[in-house]
């Protein structure tokens, strides 16, 4: 049976004929659209898609800019979804099967790296060691190296690029195991919370490869992170149902599978599912991208109403700026979610589209978050003035100042875009340039705070 080879030029010629037949376009207009199509296709191939997959996705994306291209994509919907979701041709199926095998092996390796410490009996020889604390401290290392390995394999990165991830991984491992922490003390907890943030930037480098220095590479990683969370949440929900059914079925015959579920299925599944979710995002990119606009349009109004309602209520309630520690934590969680929502919205937006009502809503959300951040900073400053510096207060102060700078300049750039003074790309560029700041601060909290505060 002979394999049917994909002819990209024939596909582009078919697309051009469709445009010429449906609408009178000047030749230079079609040439410009074709240049854009080819550029998109090349960029998508750089992310790991085949030439055929990249061209299909590029045509679908071009439909956002050109109505006839959109009609063309709609008329080819069956073929498009078959190609993107199922794959077409023996070569594509072979590539997909091989990649799935690699992912499953890496997922199994990640699960094994989690369980080996328990199975080895090492902690039985050292009863003074706290096994749950060990897993809590080293949680990123059960996932990050294997996830980076997957992207190294998929992107075919050079050895010189692969070794660049070693220093940050080793540095985090050394700090968390050599520093004389007080177990679960302030600096120890800060290290446990901030290490995953710092190491996620390592995953970003592996994901983007040689495109990491450009805005498009970093934006693809932002989009990947958001979609990974969506897929992982869905897998987690399915896993929860599976574990509940396992317990109920075995309990019905007088057995107690709780130990099996909580010592094997839950930890191994939770670890390996990260690799599976990453593979799903990579293999379905361009299709699942449709989720991003839907989610941002649902949650942006909700978070805008939440923050606006909170600010108005606080203003009329006449409360002072003092806040308890738990309230400040809730503040920071909300602000972090707003930032994530902003980044995900940017990743889903067409850079060439003119400003619309949703952009004005986004600006409103950013301004509300900025005001909430100022309130939080005033409360933090008050607590520091009254009680002095602690590791937690300094960490929260730094994080809110970083958010203040990001949100403040984002508001300025958003206003300029809406008023037609700057392109939307300027806002995207600012966010992508600023992205490493969060990882750098997280690394500083992990490495510098413990000795600065005497490892308390």
Structure commentary:
This protein folds into three domains: 8-86, no CATH class; 89-283, no CATH class; 290-422, no CATH class. The chain has 20 helices and no strands. The protein is globular. It has 456 residues and is mainly alpha-helical.
In short:
The chain is an all-alpha fold. It contains 20 helices and no strands. The radius of gyration is 25 Å and the shape is globular.
Number of domains: 3
Percentage beta strand: under 5%
**Spatial extent as radius of gyration:** 25 Å
Order of helices and strands: HHHHHHHHHHHHHHHHHHHH
Shape: globular
| Portion in helices | over 70%
Low-pLDDT regions: 77-92
Number of helices: 20
Termini, distance in Å?
Answer: 69 Å
Average pLDDT across residues? Answer: 82
Structural class, judged by helices and strands? mainly alpha
Care to count the β-strands?
0
Helices and strands in order, then pairings?
Blueprint: H1 8-22, H2 27-45, H3 51-62, H4 67-75, H5 77-86, H6 89-119, H7 122-125, H8 131-138, H9 144-155, H10 159-162, H11 166-178, H12 186-208, H13 215-251, H14 258-283, H15 291-317, H16 325-348, H17 357-387, H18 391-418, H19 424-447, H20 449-452
Helix pairs in contact: 2-3, 3-4, 6-9, 6-14, 9-12, 11-12, 12-13, 12-19, 13-14, 13-16, 15-16, 15-17, 16-17, 16-18, 17-18, 18-19
List keywords for this structure.
mainly alpha; single chain; 3 domains; 456 residues; globular
């Amino acid at each position: 049976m002979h394999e049917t080879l994909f002819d990209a030029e024939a596909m582009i010629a078919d697309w051009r004929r469709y445009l010429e037949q449906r609408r009178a376009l000047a030749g230079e207009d079609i040439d410009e659209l074709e240049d854009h199509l080819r550029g998109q296709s090349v960029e998508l191939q750089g992310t790991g898609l085949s030439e055929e997959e990249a061209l299909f996705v590029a045509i679908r994306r071009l439909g956002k800019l050109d109505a006839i291209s959109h009609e063309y994509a709609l008329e080819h919907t069956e073929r498009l979804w078959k190609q993107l979701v199922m794959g077409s041709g023996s070569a594509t199926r072979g590539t997909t099967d091989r990649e799935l095998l690699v992912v499953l092996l890496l997922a199994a390796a990640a699960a094994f790296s989690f369980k080996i410490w328990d199975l080895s009996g090492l902690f039985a020889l050292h009863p003074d060691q706290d096994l749950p604390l060990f897993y809590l401290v080293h949680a990123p290392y059960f996932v990050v190296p294997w996830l980076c390995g997957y992207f190294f394999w998929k992107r075919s990165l050079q050895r010189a690029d692969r070794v660049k991830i070693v220093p940050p991984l080793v540095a985090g491992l050394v700090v968390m195991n050599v520093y004389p922490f007080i177990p679960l003390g302030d600096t120890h907890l800060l290290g446990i919370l901030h290490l995953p943030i710092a190491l996620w930037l390592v995953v970003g480098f592996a994901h983007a490869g040689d495109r990491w220095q450009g805005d498009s590479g970093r934006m693809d990683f932002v989009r990947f992170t958001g979609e990974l969370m969506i897929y992982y949440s869905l897998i987690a929900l399915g896993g929860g149902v599976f574990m509940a059914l396992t317990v109920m079925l075995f309990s019905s015959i007088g057995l107690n599978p709780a130990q099996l579920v909580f010592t094997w299925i839950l930890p191994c599944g939770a670890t390996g599912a990260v690799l599976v979710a990453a593979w799903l995002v990579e293999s379905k990119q361009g299709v699942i991208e449709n989720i991003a606009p839907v989610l941002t349009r649902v949650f942006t109004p909700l978070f805008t109403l939440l923050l606006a309602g909170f600010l108005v209520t606080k203003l009329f309630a006449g409360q002072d700026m003092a806040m308890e520690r738990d309230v400040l934590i809730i503040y920071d969680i909300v602000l972090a979610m707003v930032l994530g929502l902003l980044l995900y919205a940017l990743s889903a937006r067409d850079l060439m589209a003119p400003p619309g009502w949703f952009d004005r809503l986004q600006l409103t959300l950013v301004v509300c978050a900025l005001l909430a951040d100022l309130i939080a900073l005033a409360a933090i400053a008050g607590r520091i003035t009254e009680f002095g510096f602690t590791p937690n207060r300094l960490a929260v102060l730094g994080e809110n100042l970083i958010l203040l700078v990001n949100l403040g300049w984002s508001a300025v750039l958003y206003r300029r875009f809406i008023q037609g003074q700057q392109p939307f790309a300027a806002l995207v560029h600012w966010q992508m340039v600023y992205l490493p700041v969060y990882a750098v601060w997280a690394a500083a909290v992990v490495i510098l705070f413990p000795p600065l505060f005497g490892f308390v």
